Amino acid sequence: MYNISQQFEEFARTGACPSTFRLKLFLDSHQPQMGGLPTRGRPPVSPPAGTAGTAGSASTQRSRRQRFRQWRRRVKRRLKGCFGLSGRAPEIHPAVVPIIERKRTAPNSRSYRALVAEAEAGGVPAAVVHQIQLDVARTFPAIPEPSGNWGWSEEAADRESCLARVLMAFECRALDSLGPRPQKSLPMLLKIRRSWCGPGDGDACVRTPLMRHSVGGEARLWAEEVSASNSDPVPTYVQGCSMMAAMCLGFTAGREEEGFWIFTYLMEDVLGPEFFSRRPAMMGYHGDKAALAQLVASTMPELAERLGTAGLAECVSALAARCLLSGFVGFLSGEPLVAFWEELLANHWPDYPRLPLLLWFTGLVQHAERQLQQAPSDELVPIFFRTVQSASRELPRGWRPVLPLSQPRALELRQVSQEAQEKYRQLQEELNFKEMHAKQVSASLDRSAAQLADALKLASSASASASAASAASAAR
């Protein structure tokens, strides 16, 4: 019988394998796990008769296949490590290390594990879960690769599941700020332990896929009810959030929990809760668009004059929807994009943390100003977005926006943004009041029409009865 221990001893005597003892210790430690796997000399185990087509047998087979794939990935990583093929694992960006610890140890902050368990148990509205699952599948191709694969798992499904858990956990954290959650919408699934990434485990990328559950209807109704009655800005998920969260995971070398805390810091402390507010919708974003229009007009007056007030507003709005809501991910070239994120997370402007968004946006337009000036006036607005986008993708390494800005000017831009936010809020409240009034009028008209129809039916019935009585008396 073949003895693997004897073979390793022979390798050790001859010196044929420099990593013999490490590999032997690894295989010995994994021998109990390997014993349960099908081997070449062991006949396959057939299911009992009459149970091959049952749902339980199919579920068991899927579970076994999933465990085998996880085991295979673990063995592959460990073998690479034994032979020195895996290389040094990427480290967390040094600029974000203190941020992670500060957010993780903040008072009254729920643990990431608890948030993930609640999200997978149905604590997030089903529509949001569906949108997240759609977005994460198309996120990673837009992420640059300045450091290999940023430490992410080689399996695309693992990366997407990790990103989806981060987004859903933050959605649960945001929903917590709306008020008490309805406990009846969170069933016994909360007590079921789900696979999650432990703290600081960069290699633990073996995950179970997210549940595609149908739970969440009551959570959705509760969120809509609270949002309708609460005008305080609370962050909500939009499509660009998946790209921002992926960049945060990149800065933490693919570590899931650390990436979540960086994403939380970005959404709550840098962008602020009003940027992706629920009601009024994205109030901070609309305020920053007004500040952007003023900054572009003051920096490039000739271009602003050619565009006109309406044209400038249209161009800024179209470009801001692509750049600001995704943090320039997929828009800037790789090295400048990483530099922008380093500046954004560093928070050099504590009075206006979102100011780097405005500075880099204006710098991109300024970089493409010469091409825009050469365009015909009647075609300037239609080609504005395409010209800036083309110039942004061809930026050389080391490019940075040259836009000196004083502290008073930064405070002035913040004031412009806040005033625009207030006007936007008032406009939304007026629109909501008009919509509510229109619904009430429509409901009142429906009730009046129903009452009139009932009265007509009653009158018709009375007339028919009277006619029948007259006919009966005439017959007598």
From TrEMBL:
<feature type="compositionally biased region" description="Low complexity">
    <location>
        <begin position="48"/>
        <end position="61"/>
    </location>
</feature>
<dbReference type="InterPro" id="IPR035969">
    <property type="entry name" value="Rab-GAP_TBC_sf"/>
</dbReference>
<keyword id="KW-0175">Coiled coil</keyword>
<feature type="domain" description="Rab-GAP TBC">
    <location>
        <begin position="107"/>
        <end position="348"/>
    </location>
</feature>
<feature type="coiled-coil region">
    <location>
        <begin position="410"/>
        <end position="437"/>
    </location>
</feature>
<dbReference type="InterPro" id="IPR000195">
    <property type="entry name" value="Rab-GAP-TBC_dom"/>
</dbReference>
<dbReference type="Pfam" id="PF00566">
    <property type="entry name" value="RabGAP-TBC"/>
</dbReference>
<protein>
    <recommendedName>
        <fullName>Rab-GAP TBC domain-containing protein</fullName>
    </recommendedName>
</protein>
<feature type="region of interest" description="Disordered">
    <location>
        <begin position="32"/>
        <end position="70"/>
    </location>
</feature>
